[in-house]
Every structure is written in C-alpha cells, then in structure tokens.
Specification:
CATH class of the largest domain in chain A: Alpha Beta
CATH architecture of the largest domain in chain B: Orthogonal Bundle
CATH class of the largest domain in chain B: Mainly Alpha
Largest sheet of chain A: 6 strands, mixed
Helix content of chain A: 40-55%
Number of domains of chain A: 3
Low-confidence stretches of chain B: none
CATH topology of the largest domain in chain A: Dipeptide-binding Protein, domain 3
Shape of chain A: globular
CATH superfamily of the largest domain in chain B: MetI-like
Low-confidence stretches of chain A: none
Number of helices of chain B: 11
Helix content of chain B: over 70%
Distance between the termini of chain B: 26 Å
Strand content of chain B: under 5%
CATH topology of the largest domain in chain B: MetI-like fold
Number of strands of chain B: 0
Strand order of the largest sheet of chain A: 3-11-2-12-1-13
Shape of chain B: globular
Mean pLDDT of chain A: 92
Radius of gyration of chain A: 23 Å
Number of helices of chain A: 17
Number of domains of chain B: 2
Strand content of chain A: 15-25%
Largest sheet of chain B: none
Order of helices and strands of chain B: HHHHHHHHHHH
Structural class of chain B: mainly alpha
Radius of gyration of chain B: 23 Å
Number of strands of chain A: 13
Oligomer: heterodimer
Chain lengths: ~375, ~280
C-alpha cells in the first residue's frame, strides 16, 4: 500500500508535467504570410495590448482613443483609409412593429428625431467653442464613462450621418458577398428569406422610405403612444450611437421636451438594453423586446438572413470611426509588419474584422485564427 | 472479441430494464423537443402562425445534420473543424483539471485534518467559491493572457468541488479507526497513508467527477474571449452571437454534453480500478 501510493503520486506528477509541457509546446507555431487574430471584447483590448497578449487590435471608438490617449498604442491605419465612408452603425426597426398599429407613423417620427439629433451633433461638433459642443462632450462622458480627452479625440474620427446613398448600399453588398464567400451565410439562406440576389436583398433590407418622408413629419403637442412606449435598443457605451442619447436629452431641445417628445414619442430603454453586442440585441429583436434599435450593420444582416429575425434598416447612424491600433514602440509601421503577429478583433462578422481582412489581403497577407 | 460480446450480452441481459429506462428518457426528451419546435414552426401536427422564435429552436434532425457537418467541414466563423475545437477545449480542461487536482487534494487533506489549516483556509475558500467564473473573464484574460486565462476559469470550476469533497472526506474519517490504528502503534505517516487517505479517496473521486462536470459548464465562459485555437465553447458562443446559426450552436452543446459524459466516464473507470487496486472492492 505504502509503495503503491508513492508510485501513484509519481505517475500523476509525470502526467501533469507531460500535459503542461505538451500544451506549452503546441501553443507556439508560425507560418508565412499569415496574420493571426483572436477575439477580444473591445473593452479588454487596451489591457490585452498593454500586457503584450496582442500586438495590435482593431475596434471602434472610443476604444481606439482609449489606447492612443494613454500612450499604450498608436493608430496604424484608420478605417476610412481602408474603405472611405464605410457603413458602421445603423438604425434597425422590427417589421412586426412597423406593421402594428401606428407603426409606420411612429417609425417615421423616430427617424425624424434621429435625423434632427444627428444634425444637432454635426452642428455642435463643427464649433468646439460652442455651448452645444460642451453639452455633447458631457453627455458622451456620461454615456461612455470616459474622460473628456478620450471622448473629444474619438469624436474627431466618427462621421455621424443618416443618409443611405448608393455607396452605403454597395458597401453592404460587398460585406454580404464576403459573408457568403466565407460561408457565414449562404445563397440558400438568401433565397429562403425570399431574396433573389445580394443586391435584391440589400435593396429590400435597406428601406429609405422613412428618410424620404422626413419633410412630412411635423412636431406633435401630445405624446402619441403614452401607454405603449417604443422599446429602444442600443449597445453599451458605443459612441457611434450618440444620436439616441442626444434625442433623449431635454436640454438639447430647449429644456422642456426631448427631441423624441417633440415628435410625440414615448421612448424607453428596452429590457436588456444596453446590450453587450449586436448579436444579443438581435436576439432581443427576435423576442419582440426591442422595437427600434441602434447596432452595427453586420449582426443585423447576418441574424436577419441566418435566423430570420424580421427587421429592416431605416437609417444610418454613423460611418467610419474605427482604427487599427498597434503597440507603441514595437516598430510596427506598416501592415506588412503585422506578419506573424496577433491582432485582437471584436469578432469574425464585425465590420472591423472585414476591413482588416480587406486591408491585409491587399498586402498579400491572410488572416487566420491564432492557434 | 467473442469474450467481449459475451460479456456485453450478459450485461444487457441483466440490466435491460434500466437500459430501456435510460433510452426512453432520451427518446422522451427528443420527442418533446421535436414537438416544441414543430409548434414554433407551426408545422405538422400543429398549424397557425410561425413564431419569431422558430429559427431559435431548430428540429432535432437539423441539429444532427449541423453536428455531422461540423465534423465533415470547416465552420463558417473560424474555419476550423470540430476536431480542432474539441482538441482546444480538451487541452484547457485537462490542464485545468491537472492543476486543480494537484492543488485541491493536498489543500483539502490539510484543511480537513488540521484545525488550524482549516481555520486559515476557510474564509478564502468561502469568499471565492461562490464567485461565478464568468466574472473573472476580463481579469484573467489580461493578467494571465490567452493561454492560461481560459485555463484559469476552467480550473476554478474544477478546483472547488474537489477541494470541498476532500475536506469533507478527510474530516469524516471515523475516529474509532484512527484510535485503533494508534493503539496498534501506527505513526503519523502510517495513519495518513493507511487510514486517512484510503478513507478520503471515494470523496476525492466524487469531487473529481463533480468538478469535471462543472469544468465543462465553465467552458463557454472560458472561451468566450481570447479562445486561441478555437474551442467548443467558442464555437457555441460565436455560432449564436456572431452569425446566428442556431442549429450549429445546439450541435456544439451536444458535443459538450458528450465530452462531459466521456471525461466523467473515464474518471468513473479510474475510480473502479483504484478501488480494486487498493483492495476496497
């Protein structure tokens, strides 16, 4: 018995050491022409960069400015240098909501308030000495829990806007084609949802009629939906989605009513909002918990095609505003220098991932999951 | 071979009522699942309006197809085969288990047998035990990086069941046995190796089996972020949140279930062997 125990302990020790060393050995390898990626939440990217877990990351604001302002990283390339005016966040509406009582009218009014809020932001940002600029920065500080330096730096790289022109649609077509190429969605799914082609899908899924009808929407003295508020979805601290913060703020519109209220809307945050990511928000759309929401275009497209979540894009929220951040002092000065390095991305379907992939392919580099 | 088939036949003949019961629970579950899915899809035997949640609850057949597909081809998100995901997850579970075992068993024996060690360790154990592994994800990912971060999360899940069972086992050693051994002239070392350890072994084994299950429960949290080389948990998370392919997500869940059954089964076999070897059965 005595000896047996010692033998057993010895065997366990050998197995443990063996497993650990094998795992360590197998975790290192390198290939040519490959940039490795790993999925990290944007909030954790700065930490991962500063500890050296990753050599670079691509994310949206304010997560880019986070690292730049604190000196941890520098921006190698802004997303608009990869694809000018690329789409980013959009306003999505649930189809069952628009087909419900007053759904069309309420959505029109929502889009009107969204457009006015966006215009207010553009005016405020145009003059950084104005009172509205200070108000906007303060709202953003509260919304993102960042300081003024980070917020102001981030605003410099986001293009707020609402129009959905031909280049917006063609970019969404390009993204959808990329998803089909990598099997994230398929032609079968496309036809299962009743679309004959990618351009047919984007043409249907992007509905500009609400933007076209803006001129006909007038302010309302009374709240039109007092008992059934519009359930609003948005992502946590996402500066791209500032329009909904602005539209809910009373000071913006003179102090008595918010922009939503000006157009007769009772809007409240959906159960579960703010959401951690667009996939979770689309789940809430499917459950009927969100009526109108702000999120990135990719999860809206993918979850609509793959999981059949009945939604439509009714307005843009912003374009651009993402950046590829590299570790300061590492000597990474071009995309080529990223070969064999590890880049953190927010996920394989994100616009940031697609843009990184496009940029690397132009340099003859392939993006592969880190092993 | 014939000996094996004979043994198998004998096992089936002796245990057929329980085998049938086990199978029927699985059949019952799959039938209920199929009915629920058909109800949401508003297809036979139901009718009416298709629910928005229908795509979220695919038919068992669709999940089976997705399961086969995940082994036959690369997945659409990370372009890895299911075997790579299984390898990555098994690596995390085995390293996490090895660490948990090596640390929890001695710590548990010590805390169970020494009152001072127990008093010293208890507050820390009780404080940290209820913290969900998910809460540690950001910290572990940054502090321990991508290799050890996910392992640490699995480790936490496995560590506490083994530790608590070992403490409980070591504490419940019959004092009469200890006294008897002492009367017979056993020294501390003999007492530990011949009385305490054999008595505690069944508790440790229960802890291991429980811990492995909890370890698999933590795998999605562990692989949600920074999952280098993929992983079954990463597969589940990305199929749901990244692309919304829910049949594949369920396929991943089934893979985890099977892996957990296999690892716990191996622990059970080791347990049987150990008891035989120690002369307990």
């Amino acid at each position: 018995m005595d000896k047996k125990i010692i033998v057993a302990i010895a065997i366990v020790a050998v197995v443990v050491v063996g497993v650990l060393s094998a795992a360590l050995l197998l975790s290192r390898d390198s290939k040519e022409g490959i940039v490795k990626y790993v999925t990290v939440a944007p909030a954790d990217m700065k930490g991962a960069l500063s500890t050296g877990s990753v050599d670079a990351y691509i994310a949206w604001e304010p997560f880019v400015s986070d690292s730049v302002v604190s000196g941890v990283g520098t921006v190698l390339i802004w997303s608009d240098e990869i694809m000018p005016n690329h789409p980013c966040c959009v306003v999505v509406v649930r189809n069952d909501f628009t087909s419900g009582p007053d759904g069309q009218d309420l959505t029109k009014r929502f889009v009107k308030a969204h457009v006015e809020a966006t215009q207010w932001m553009l005016d405020a940002l145009a003059d950084d000495t104005s009172a509205n600029y200070t108000l906007l920065v303060n709202m953003a500080i509260q919304f993102t829990s960042r300081d003024a330096t980070v917020v102001e730096s981030a605003f410099g790289h986001i293009e707020f806007g609402y129009a959905m022109n031909a280049s917006f649609k063609s970019a969404l077509e390009q993204f959808t084609e990329m998803y089909i190429d990598t099997n994230m969605t398929t032609d079968e799914k496309l036809s299962e949802r009743g679309y004959s082609s990618v351009s047919d899908f984007v043409g249907e899924y992007v509905n500009t009629s609400y933007l076209d009808a803006l001129a006909s929407v007038t302010p309302s003295d009374t709240i039109l939906n007092p008992t059934s508020p519009i359930k609003l979805g948005y992502l946590r601290g996402d500066l791209h989605q500032m329009a909904q913060v602005v539209a809910q703020n009373k000071t913006v519109n003179g102090g008595v009513k918010s922009l939503f209220e000006k157009y007769g809307l009772n809007v409240k945050n959906a159960t579960g909002a703010p959401f951690a990511n667009g996939g979770a928000e689309m789940g809430a759309f499917a459950a009927g918990a969100v009526d109108i929401g702000y999120l990135g275009a990719p999860p809206a497209i993918l979850q609509h095609l793959n999981a059949g979540v009945g939604t439509t894009i009714v307005s843009q929220a912003n374009s651009e505003g993402s950046g590829l951040v590299v570790r300061a002092g590492e000597g990474i000065v071009s995309l080529k220098d990223l070969e064999n390095k590890t880049v953190a991305t927010p996920g394989e379907s994100s616009i940031q991932f697609l843009l990184l992939k496009i940029a690397l392919e132009e340099e003859g580099l392939k993006l592969e999951i880190k092993t | 071979m014939s000996q094996f088939t004979q043994a198998l036949w004998k096992f089936v003949r002796l245990n057929w009522p329980r085998i049938a019961l086990g199978c029927s629970s699985v059949v019952l579950f799959v039938t209920a699942w199929w009915l629920y899915s058909a109800w949401l899809h508003a297809e036979w035997p139901f009718s009416g309006r298709t629910s928005g949640a229908a795509e979220y609850v695919p038919y068992p057949r669709q999940v089976l197809e997705a399961l086969i597909d995940s082994f036959a081809g690369r997945d659409p998100v990370s372009h890895l085969y299911m075997t790579s995901h299984i390898y990555a997850s098994l690596k995390r579970i085995s390293v996490g288990f090895a660490l948990a075992f090596v640390l929890a068993v001695p710590a548990g024996l010590l805390m169970g047998r020494s009152r001072n060690a127990g008093a010293f360790g208890k507050p820390i154990v009780e404080l940290f035990r209820p913290i969900p592994p998910l809460a540690w994800v950001p910290i572990f990912l940054i502090a321990l990086k991508f290799f050890w971060g996910p392992i640490a999360i699995v480790f936490l899940g496995i560590f506490f069941p083994i530790l608590l069972n070992t403490i409980f086992g070591a504490k419940s050693v019959d004092p009469v046995l200890v006294d008897a051994a002492r009367t017979l002239g056993a020294r501390r070392r003999d007492l530990f190796l011949k009385v305490v350890l054999p008595f505690t072994t069944p508790y440790i084994m229960t802890g291991i089996k429980l811990g492995l299950g909890v370890g698999w429960m933590c795998i999605v949290a562990a692989e949600m972020l920074g999952a280098v080389g993929g992983g079954v948990g990463y597969y589940i998370y990305s199929m749901a949140y990244t692309v919304g392919l829910y049949d594949r997500m369920y396929a991943g869940m089934i893979v985890i279930g099977i892996l957990s059954v296999l690892t716990t089964g191996i622990a059970g076999l080791v347990e049987q062997r150990l008891y035989k070897w120690m002369g307990m059965k």
